[in-house]
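Project outcomes to date are best conveyed with an example. Our students and postdoctoral researchers have been running inverse folding experiments weekly, and each run begins with a structure described purely in tokens. The record below, which covers 105 residues, was selected by the lab manager from last quarter's runs and is presented without edits.
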């Protein structure tokens, strides 16, 4: 059980960092959260994240509610809208003043 829902628990060990347990809903197969313990100068800190209320944006189904708790603090994020491919093609071009300073090989 995770977040009040029957879940599959998957242990993930990254090359760097602590062991993370990810949870996936048995009913839907969707990712519903993680738990981990992070070492800090003040000692180990448990970090829990719960995601849910999935909605479809374009071709993707994404969670719109994210709740994270750690060391007695809670952070809640709500997404109302998600858009894709709205950045102009030249948005990352260097300004002329900077481009003049760049040496090309």
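After processing, the design step wrote out the following sequence:
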């Amino acid at each position: 059980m995770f977040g009040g829902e029957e879940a599959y628990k998957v242990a993930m060990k990254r090359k760097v960092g602590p062991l993370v347990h990810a949870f996936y809903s048995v009913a839907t197969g969707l990712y519903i959260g993680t738990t981990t313990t992070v070492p800090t100068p003040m000692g180990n800190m448990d970090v829990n994240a719960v995601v849910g209320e999935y909605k479809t944006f374009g071709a993707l189904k994404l969670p719109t509610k994210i709740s994270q708790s750690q060391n007695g603090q809670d952070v809640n994020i709500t997404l109302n809208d998600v858009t894709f491919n709205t950045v102009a093609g030249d948005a990352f071009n260097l300004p002329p003043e900077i481009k003049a300073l760049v040496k090309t090989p």
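The two ends are 57 Å apart (CA to CA). The beta strands are 7-12, 20-25, 31-40, 43-57, 60-70, 73-78. The training component of this project remains on track.
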